[in-house]
Amino acid sequence: MGSRARWRQSWAPQPLTPLMEGPGPEMQEEGTKKESSWEVIREWFRTQKISPSGSFSQSSSSFYGTIHAKTQDLRLLLGVLGCPLAPIPSAHDPTLSIHIKDTPFETSTAKYIIQQYLAATGCLKQQKDTKNMYATGMVKMICCETEISSGKNVKCLGTRSSENGCFVLWQMQPGMWSLELVVGDHKVVAGSNGKTVWRHTPWLGTHAAKGPQRPLRRLIQGLDPKTTASLFTNAQCLGENRIGTVDCFVLKVSADRAAVVERSEGPAEVIRHILYGYFCQKSGLLIYLEDSHLTRVPTQDNDTVYWETTIGSSIGDYRDVDGILIAHQGRSVATVFRFGELSMQHSRTRMEEIWTIDDVMFNVPGLSMDHFIPPADIFDNINSP
Fold first, then answer.
1. Contact 270, 295 (CB under 8 A)
2. Cβ distance 330 to 105 under 8 Å?
3. Which one-letter DSSP state was computed for residue 54?
């Protein structure tokens, strides 16, 4: 009862797009306009101006303008890298036996690679089921660098200033998780009760996710091998590739058409969301993860703007935790690319996150479903007729 009361806060639900998954279309009437998660990134691009002469300038170089720019940088970082979701829902238990009859070669090969991954991480020989997990970690987020191009003019703006932070992550099967992430003076809280995914930020309030329930991307970056394996259960093997000097098998999964349509909102159309996993041929471990998300948005002047978000994560420092190999550090590089069909102007923003895991614990006593109850307004909305 205490946990439920703690979450009974009056937060207004709005659509959640944790991977900047679709610019919120501007309302026709200014009085009814609501800020969406895409407003953060759109505000960032508005601060990077191109003069009629073709020269570039930032909105303000004053002391207060610099503070505003740093705030926008951090909001953009947290919007893209704070709590993005995986492209697809988790599948069935990946430790079940493989059935390769009438299965395409690319799919059966991927299933074999995933079984090797489960064996390498220790999941196949684990004696007891993992009911829940707790993890804490540190993050260093490096602010944005933007390249703006207009015809022949190209300019790079921004500095590589950084902010340090920390996070606490709880997970409980099936499909429940809770994340608290604090960076600088900003805090992001997100969670899932197994049916609904939500997020709260101070500048956007609370948002409920559209589309199928999907796992937190931070979990599949080496923290939860079983969830990672379940995402690639029906993957295709694309062949071999190298990450640095390491030979890897490359597996690919993508959200189906029905799922991306369900995640579209208004005129903003989600076109695709693809996930690639690079599994080391020698160790069998996942060492690199990349996902690419593309959204198309028509503008008022009949132009079309595309927003492509790509996140690539290097994963390493695997350590044994109760018989399971867990990755304890990594680096994510995100790129947000904005371009149009008719306009020659495009913008590309790059940002980074370096993360380390301080502590991991399985089967925490006393953890219950009450710890994953959504905020009150979302909870009431779900149960209303």
1. yes
2. no
3. S
pLDDT tens-digit series, residues 4-47: 443 333 333 344 444 444 343 332 333 333 444 445 555 555 55
Q: Where are the alpha helices (DSSP H) in the chain?
A: 2-7, 38-46, 63-77, 105-121, 225-231, 257-263, 376-383
Round the CA-based radius of gyration of the chain to a whole number and report it.
Answer: 21
d(CA 174, CA 162): 36
Q: Please give the structure tokens belonging to residue 69.
A: 């720019």
Residue 275 vs residues 87, 100, 228, 313: alpha-carbon distances, Å: 7, 23, 11, 11
pLDDT band at residue 144 using 50, 70 and 90 as cut-offs? confident
**Between β-strands 345-362 and 132-150, what pairing exists: parallel, antiparallel or unpaired?**
antiparallel
Q: For the chain, give me the number of helices (H) and strands (E)?
A: 7, 17
Strands 13-16 and 197-201: unpaired
Where does 95-196 show beta strands of DSSP type E?
A: 132-150, 153-157, 162-172, 176-183, 186-193
Least confident of 166-180, 191-205, 355-369: 191-205
Phi, psi dihedrals of residue 274, rounded to the nearest 5°: -125, 145
Q: What angle do CA 128, 287, 250 make, to 5 degrees?
A: 105
- C-beta contacts of 23-27 below 8 A and 24+ residues apart: 23/268, 23/295, 23/297, 23/305, 23/307, 24/265, 24/266, 24/268, 25/265, 25/266, 25/267, 25/268, 25/297, 26/300
Give yes or no for a contact between 125 and 325, defined as CB atoms under 8 angstroms apart. Answer: no
Q: Output DSSP code: residue 105.
A: H
Sorted by where each starts, the structural domains of the chain and their CATH numbers stand as 77-368 (2.50.20)
Predicted local distance difference test score (pLDDT) of residue 321: 95
Q: Is pLDDT above 70 for 182?
A: yes
Task: Collect all residues with Cβ–Cβ distance below 8 Å to 368 and sequence separation of at least 6.
Answer: 3
Sign of CA dihedral 298, 301, 302, 307: negative
Mean pLDDT of 202-224: 88
Residue indicated by tokens 């909001």: 75
pLDDT at 123 over 60: yes
Find the Cα–Cα–Cα–Cα dihedral 321, 226, 364, 187, rounded to 10°: 100
Residues whose CB is less than 8 angstroms from the CB of residue 246 and which lie 6 or more positions away in sequence, other chains included: 280, 281, 282, 287
Contact 306, 282 (CB under 8 A): no
How buried is residue 40: exposed, middle or buried, by Cβ count under 10 Å (0-12/13-18/19+)?
buried
